[in-house]
Structures are given as C-alpha cells and as structure tokens.
TrEMBL record:
It comes from Rhizosphaericola mali. It comes from the Bacteria. GO terms for molecular function: ATP binding; ATP hydrolysis activity. Keywords: ATP-binding, Nucleotide-binding, Transport. Residues 25-205 form the AAA+ ATPase domain. This is ABC transporter ATP-binding protein. PANTHER family: ABC TRANSPORTER ATP-BINDING PROTEIN ALBC-RELATED.
Amino acid sequence: MIQFQSFEKKYGKTLVIAVSKLKLTSKIYWIHGKNGSGKSTLLQSIAGMLRFNGDIKIEDYSLKKNPSLCKSWINYAPAEPRYPPFLSGKEIIQLYIQTKNGNIKNVDYLISELGMSNYMDLPISSYSSGMLKKVALVAAFTGDVKWILLDEPFNAIDQYSIEILSKWIQYFHKEKGIGFILTSHQGINIDLINGIEEMYIDNNEIKTTDDRNNETA
C-alpha cells in the first residue's frame, strides 16, 4: 500500500505536483497527463529519488523515516533511461539482480521474451532508445519487490513488446501480488491489461475518474 500525506513537490516556488491524501492498494494504476504535468516527478518521489514536503508511506512505513527499507520494496523504470555508456546491458541487469535479490533464470526468460539476447554483451553506448528502454523494463521486473513504477513504459518499443510487457504486468500482479503504477501522456490500450484503474493529473493534482464524473455531472 502507498499512502500520501500532505504530499507536495516544488521546484523553487513552483508547485509541480500535490497529493493531499490518497491511498493506493496493490492494484494496477494508470496515471495520465500532458507532458510536464508532474508524472515523472511523482514516480521519482515514490521511489525515494527526490525530496518533497509531507510524507509518503510504503506498507505503513514512512519513506522519510525508513528510506532504505521503503526503497527496497520499489523498482522504477524511467521514461528515458540513462546508464554509464561503458557498461553492457548484462552488467546493468546483474547489478539489479545483486541489489534486489533477483533470480537469474527469471531475468534470462524476460530478456529472451523481449528479443534482447543478441545485444546484452554490447556496451550501452551502442544501444538505440528502444534497446535502452527494454533494459530498464527488465531491470524493473527484477527482484523481490512490492511495487513497480513504470514511467511511459510503452514509448520507444514496438507493438509486440507492448503486448509482452502487458502480459508481464498482469502476471506479476496476479501471481506475486505486486502493485503497478504506469504513466503516460498519451492513451494506452487498456484492453491489454485487465483491471487497470485510471487516474489523471489536472492542475497539479491527481484525480480519479470518479472526480471527473462528479465535475461533469
């Protein structure tokens, strides 16, 4: 469970995103909003990468008071991943396996499904944006975590990979009880992911479809 308590993130005096009170249980959430609406900032805050006002609780533990514990429960895949150019994709994944207690057999299966095996030994500097994206996605599914945060996960990958990723999300949620938060600035095919719950960002705040229905009623 993720709970927001008077959460807000500012850069200087500019408010980027605010969540006064919200509880997310271990479901699959899709948060959409235009570019610059605060989606990435929100995920980075949950992942413990940014300072913010208020608090976020992960499984009833304060992220501010228990940062190491809370961050161990969360994997995050950025919209535009960046890694040291001299490392190979395999070396990056191995780092995640070590830090997140991952299973190499499970990871090898994911790599094979996304058709990555032929380039995992090559340096990151030779990767296209789509290849980098796949490395970040495999890393996010590595280890024993409670939440996986995927920022613009369907960008830069082909339709086949989108379908594979959607299958992973459903499997990891159903079989392992992992919660997911996905973001996008464009629409996604929600038919590929059963039970996904839609939310959106408007005027620096997260709103649910119920909020939208109330506004238009």
